[in-house]
Design goal:
366 residues, alpha+beta, Aminoglycoside 3'-phosphotransferase, Chain: A, domain 2, 2 domains, five-stranded antiparallel β-sheet, two-stranded antiparallel sheet, 9 strands, 44% helix, Aminoglycoside phosphotransferase, AGP_Transferase, Aminoglycoside_PTrfase, Kinase-like_dom_sf
Amino acid sequence: MTTTQPAAPAAPLAPPDSTRIAKTVATQLPFRGELAGLSPLAGDASNRRYFRIALKGSPSALILMQLADPEGFKKSEEAVSGASAQIAELPFTNVLTHLQRTGVTVPQLHYYDREAGLLYLEDFGDLTLAEACRGAEPARLDALYRQAIDQLVLLQVKGTTPPAPGCIAFHRRFDVPLLMWEFDHFLEYGITARIGRPMKAEDDAAIRAEFQRIAELLAGQPQVLVHRDYHSRNLMVDGARIGIIDFQDALMGPATYDLASLLKDAYIELDETLVDALIEHFLDGLAAQGVKIADRPAFRRLFDFTSIQRNLKAAGRFVYIDQVKHNPKFLADIPRVLGYVRRNLSKYPELATLRRHLVPYVAELQ
């Protein structure tokens, strides 16, 4: 079982050919359209670019995904583990096909121009869950998050059973090596690169031993389909529905992973009382689908430990994106994710050793 490094940053992409796009829109889509405009959309930390295609007629717009490299799908931007299956298809389209069978709301792929590395997708609009919740009334916030959790329940239950060996997600998983790679990513960037010096050897050894224990706990859980980035910027509020995007790195992992990504989000912080209620809503949703979690306090402990792993990984990743990809926009979110870690380290006496050795190196944990 090997764990690979994420792909290196790609060279800047040339803008897509508007003449080619106009011809595709006019001749290759399930409907005939006329190009009215092409505008770039704000990017994330990926090696893809996105544009909105304005059309004359209905639909009035599409999303264009531009791949950095038509062959780049053979390498994930995230570290992966257990990918024994031969990758002969774009992970985005492979996972999309599987998710469409589950009933979750994912964008329709109208056309894939393989030669140009251009995907023509349904447009869910610009309103992310994060933006929809900014300043929202408590009842609206609660309703949106319950809707997002209902989608997650469907993704986990219908996406996991029956197994789909044709889906790449079933050939990679959150095993101990991958979880430890993510912990190491935090140590490398969230500590060493951030403070400009390595840890003391005794602290490094103690921290890694504690990380190993958490990794073994998470890897030992029953495996379900995991989106891997199920958070408020990858959920689009499109009228009465919530659309799911950015799922190409899906893999198998613990049921708590996507839930922790959503409720302990780097971009929006929820009141702890609401988090408690939403976890119960998730468990009730699983039960309604025939998946019963008998020990709910044990599930909450697992959720909190998953949150520690996920949020430390995010903190390290944000420093990496700044220092390696020269994109500092995520640095402002580091205090929030480390705040979650600080509270969980204080919550569980069994984490006292980890807290004692880690806190001196991370100001936000003090």
